[in-house]
Amino acid sequence: MKKHWLLMAFLMALSGALLVGCGTLIKPTVKTGLIQLEKGSYKLDQTHVAVLFKINHMGLSTFVGRFNKVDASLEFDPQNIAAAKLSAVIDIASIDVNNPDLEDTLRGDSWFAAEKFPQAFFKTSSVNIIDGNTAEFRGDLQLHGVTAPINLRIHFNGGGNNILTGFYTLGFSATSSFNRSTFGIDYLTPAIADQVDIEVFAEFQQR
Predict the structure, then answer these.
(1) Domain-embedded: residue 11
(2) Is the pLDDT of residue 10 over 70?
(3) Is residue 9 part of a domain?
(4) Residue 36 exposure: Cα atoms within 13 Å on the Cβ side
(5) Which CATH number do you get for residue 107?
(6) What does the pLDDT look like over 138-151, one tens digit per residue?
(7) 109-146 b/e with 16+ CB inside 10 Å = b?
(8) Domain count, the chain
(9) Could you tell me which residues come within 8 angstroms of residue 57 by beta carbon, excluding any fewer than 6 positions away?
């Protein structure tokens, strides 16, 4: 019996070592710095994206939600970053606040009016380099039937070859803020804050 347990312990230790080794093998060599990234046309990896929104609730807390259906493309050249193009579309009905009843309310006419305005769109108009890893993507957001300018501050985490997908992949995070009243969504202000903060975490695959 003792030998049996010793064998089991050895096999478990070996299995753990192999799993650690696999994690090391699949981790790409990530190059950082905008100038180090590869030129190309990129498509959003929809399995590695999160689009979050945050808004102050009654002065008491920060309410957080997300959109689950997003698509985007990126044209990128590290030698001409100012010419980068980012476009994205969000399915408004995919709003997720971990509360089905509230989600239905937010899809309604007092808020997003998702049946009338089923999608939101963003498209860049210009890009301004901030530092070696960060750029400001200026563009227009079309939401709730209104088009207005917003700025996305994008931090590029780096790029590398993902052996699991076979694609060279860029990763970045982005932040933005705007007033929802700009887009005609002013229900219950100021109890529900006018300012909305956006956070995006995404990976893009080179095509």
Answers:
(1) no
(2) no
(3) no
(4) 16
(5) 2.40.128.110
(6) 999 999 999 999 99
(7) eebbbbeebeebebebeebeeeeebbbbbebebbbbee
(8) 1
(9) 63, 192, 193
